[in-house]
Amino acid sequence: MLRRQTRVRAITAMLGLLGATFASLAVAPSAAQARCAGVGTSITSTLNIGSAVAVRETPVAGTCNDNNYYQGTFQSNYAGWRASVWFERDGWQSRFGPYGTAVQYYSYSDTSTPVPGATAMHFCLDNGVTWYCGWGNNYIIAAGVTHNFTGLNHGF
Question: What is the pTM of this model?
Fold first, then answer.
């Protein structure tokens, strides 16, 4: 009888821990899921290929101020590869960096979408032939740009 109670307690504790883990994942998204995560909250975003950061995007200081104007910088972390930022604003629009690792500045305003100051975005890394497009750890390898995995930028 005592052995059965111990087993039930162990299973209950394990299920409780598992439930708490899933709840924390739902409440606390990873850093790669937003750049402006609301007014005053800027977060660096990435496109990761394997365990390496392939593209890094950072908001310019003060851009998360609810004026519908976003400014940021992005770069490829691979020589010979080009980073690009894609955002949905009445259709997909893009900004391309150079082939190489130079930092590229970009900006855009958003007053025409259904929710001004909120856009879906993602990054791509290409060498002119092969494209890696996505958000965070999720990406697709293709012969051109894809818009399958995106994040939300809001409060800019």
Answer: 0.75
